[in-house]
Amino acid sequence: MPTLILVRHGRSTANTSGVLAGRMPGVALDERGTAQAAALPARLAGVPLTAAVSSPLQRCRETLRPLLAARPGLPLYAEDRISECDYGDWSGRKLAELADQPLMEVVQRHPSAAAFPGGESMRAMQARAVDAVRDWNARTEEAHGAEAAYLMCSHGDIIKSLVADALGMHLDLFQRISVEPCSVTVIRYTRLRPYLVRLGDTGDFGGLVPREDAGPADGERDAAVGGGAGAP
After folding, report:
1. How far, in Å, CA of 74 to CA of 69, rounded?
2. Tell me, what's the pLDDT at 231?
3. Fewer C-beta neighbours within 10 Å, C or N terminus of the chain?
4. pTM of this prediction?
5. How much is the pLDDT for 224?
6. Enclosing H/E stretch for 37
7. Separation between Cα atoms, residue 43 and residue 96, nearest integer Å
């Protein structure tokens, strides 16, 4: 079965402003995110890709723009099932305002039980994303063979949920996974099991440098809904 290259979109204006963007229109890459996207073609140079599949949201399409310009023959497909989680009434709100909501603790500690008011559950989010990958695996293998590779550009929570599925992890553990903006995660699927080949690879280790505003130790800090902004 094919190899899936997952790219999280570059850093966005919502990431840096601490807003839970969800599916809000008009959320673009910020200056750093644009630079991250510009570096993507070189990072993936030499990797043969049969297709690029994208969340329909603007920040994902902008992330793929330099790669598509560098590979004019690479077909692009939109896939609604790998769009951001539908955060419903929480969309557009500041994460700081949501921190004390009882649901936020459920999102962090028991996400398989979390459903966003006016939106979807995290279980439904994972299920649709996994279904999309399985369909694209079959489509890619049929057209290009079992050794083919294709790319999906999506969002932090979507990618984390796909990694959890590939590792056989319960969704309640997926907040232990971290994928930075414009990081590359690779899953190789086989007939019997998937293999996680890369996880959240940004090509540098800047995220390991302690920050002055780091606050609690990593083991005491909740994972950001929507994947977080990563290091500035």
Report:
1. 9
2. 42
3. C
4. 0.90
5. 73
6. helix 31-43
7. 34
The closest alpha carbon to 50, from 133, 135, 139, 155, belongs to 139
Q: What is the DSSP string of 146-176?
A: TT-EEEEEE-HHHHHHHHHHHHT--GGGGGG
Contacts 24+ apart (CB under 8 A), 111-117: 111/171, 111/172, 111/174, 111/175, 112/170, 112/171, 112/172, 116/85, 116/86, 116/87, 116/88, 116/89, 116/90, 117/88, 117/89, 117/90
Q: What's the pLDDT score for residue 207?
A: 57
DSSP codes joined into one string, 81-127: GGSPP--GGGTT-BHHHHTTSHHHHHHHH-GGG-B-TTS-BHHHHHH
Q: CB-hemisphere CA count at 13 Å for 51? A: 19
DSSP 198: E
Q: What pLDDT is attached to residue 232?
A: 42
Q: How far is CA 174 from the centre of its chain?
A: 12
Structure tokens at 49: 């890709």
Quick one: tokens of 127? Answer: 């299920």
Task: Report the C-alpha gap between 38 and 34 in whole angstroms.
Answer: 6
Helix (H, G, I), strand (E, B) or coil at 145: coil
Q: How far apart are CA 222 and CA 105, in angstroms?
A: 9
Positions in the chain short of pLDDT 50: 218, 231-232
Measured CA to CA in angstroms, residue 187 lies from 18, 36, 196 at distances of 29, 21, 5
Burial class (CB in 10 A: 0-12, 13-18, 19+), 220: exposed
Nearest alpha carbon to residue 126 among 157, 103, 149, 156: 157
Q: Beta partners for 195?
A: 188
